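Hi D.,

Good news: the full-assembly prediction came through. Inputs first.
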Amino acid sequence: MAAPLELSCWGGGWGLPSVHSDSLVVMAYAKFSGAPLKVNVIDNTWRGSRGDVPVLTTEDNTISQPAKILNFLRKQKYNADYELSAKQGADTLAYIALLEEKLLPAVLHTFWVESDNYFTVTKPWFASRMPFPLSLILPGRMSKGALTRILLTRGEPPLYHLREVEAQIYRDAKECLNLLSNRLGTSQFFFGDMPSTLDAYVFGFLAPLYKVRFPKVQLQEHLKQLSNLCRFCDDILNSYFRVSLGDG
Amino acid sequence: MCLLIWLVIDIFLPCVPVSTAAEPWPENATLYQQLKGEQILLSDNAASLAVQAFLQMCNLPIKVVCRANAEYMSPSGKVPFIHVGNQVVSELGPIVQFVKAKGHSLSDGLDEVQKAEMKAYMELVNNMLLTAELYLQWCDDATVGEITHARYGSPYPWPLNHILAYQKQWEVKRKMKAIGWGNKTLDQVLEDVDQCCQALSQRLGTQPYFFNKQPTELDALVFGHLYTILTTQMTNDELSEKVKNYSNLLAFCRRIEQHYFGKGSSSIRLS
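Then the structure:
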């Protein structure tokens, strides 16, 4: 427990500690559970593979993927779900599945596939944090990965075009946002007064969508109409990330 | 060849289910799936059973027809699909919408928060249980060699049976890789199944159905998957053992089986 835990992740911007959803989920969880993480922001000089980011490094091993990192932190007694009942724990898993199936494709599309957004915002931002010549190759690969994921999970075989899926994934994402807003209601967090794993995931997915300035903004506009979700993101940013905003 | 058939079906058999909502449910509605004894796989059987359970819960008659090329007849490439009047609709989600447009719904009595929960739990089942079933069928070498390849290709002559099976396996593996399951071991997948069952068990608690007295499409979906897992013979029993750990889930499956399918429902054996 006393061993230093280092998290390598993508950096921040637009008022966020990180613009990358997975990184943000881990950072938020660490703040909620009180885990002492040393955050190393990836820049040009970072040597490791960027495919697995965020990556948690401890004395003995290296863990990637948010779900595994959170499991590890829980085993180290940094548990943000301590106060939850069994049913609330079950609800957490279900809502995370909902986020991944319904919201994530549209978020990936907004960041990595929509050409205006990708070429004017996403690609330059990520490329500036990678050394040449990776900066020429890796953003393209990440974009292709996002497109593949969208087509393979939401597309239908094999005569299938992105435009048809686009309408469907944005419809699903808007419905998901409405469901989240209904579920949150007027509470501060999803399960009462203390933030938990679900709050970390929702924050991780919503905050970049809320704050990053994109040219094509249909999902962002929809999110901004759901004032309780915006208030949720702002509250977490102000309460837990105020000190590190200066690094973003 | 299959691509050509698929093209023809796609052009000549439109499947949008929205407009003819006014027509009542006909007596000759049919559900198509693959051949029960020799061909159908775990995940497709689960999906088909879920739709059958849902229609039974809505009290809508349906006749089950088995065809070797059901997957290719389906408008989305996935089974099962139902043929009602002159409409063809596939997969549980669209079928629920279609049935709702005809005036039958199981979830009308739920409030907004409950509807959100229902959708979330349905995604959980799709995200974890269905993906785990696909992983076991297509990415676990023992199962693939002993069961899946033989069953999937069984209606076709050599060499088509091998080609189609390998093609499908390649597609599934690509999808697994895209969603981050490519590097998972079988033990990790079984661990995920356990987590999912635990969540379902905790949500169900001591109630008869997930939303207390009345079953909804979530109950149909969970029943379809759990019952199929429990009654299908695989190379080992680890998957069904995970489900058997939760007695309220077993009672839930028995309750739905007895209430909606009468006694003596078939248990599928894959050999």
